[in-house]
Amino acid sequence: MSENSISRDEVSRIARLARIALTDEELDQIAPQLDHIVDAVSKVQQVDTQGVEPMSHPHSIDAGMRPDVEKKTLTQEQALDQAPAAQDERFVVPQILGEGE
């Protein structure tokens, strides 16, 4: 555990400030868990990061972008041709929002 361990009273105070109701058993259980977390974070803070470039992701990411090439697609008539219902050059679908209004 760390030198500055988190006391049960500190956990109680933090819980009260956060408006979280904790039982005595939960306070006894959470105090050492929080102490363990703080200890782990302090170890990470001790790592020498001098000369390490900041990054947004631990792995290099290749977005795999393809060239933007214009291709032939369906015409509006072809798309609507197989639709169960079409009206005014649009698909007709059942109403799901605001039904019964």
Automatic annotation (TrEMBL):
Gene3D superfamilies reported for this sequence: Glu-tRNAGln amidotransferase C subunit, N-terminal domain
One Pfam family hit: GatC
Catalytic activity of the protein: L-glutamyl-tRNA(Gln) + L-glutamine + ATP + H2O = L-glutaminyl-tRNA(Gln) + L-glutamate + ADP + phosphate + H(+); L-aspartyl-tRNA(Asn) + L-glutamine + ATP + H2O = L-asparaginyl-tRNA(Asn) + L-glutamate + ADP + phosphate + 2 H(+)
EC number, UniProt record: 6.3.5.-
GO molecular function annotation: asparaginyl-tRNA synthase (glutamine-hydrolyzing) activity; ATP binding; glutaminyl-tRNA synthase (glutamine-hydrolyzing) activity; transferase activity
Source superkingdom: Bacteria
Keywords: ATP-binding, Ligase, Nucleotide-binding, Protein biosynthesis, Transferase
Subunit structure: Heterotrimer of A, B and C subunits.
Name used for this protein in its record: Aspartyl/glutamyl-tRNA(Asn/Gln) amidotransferase subunit C
Species this chain originates from: Corynebacterium mycetoides
Name of the gene encoding the protein in the UniProt record: gatC
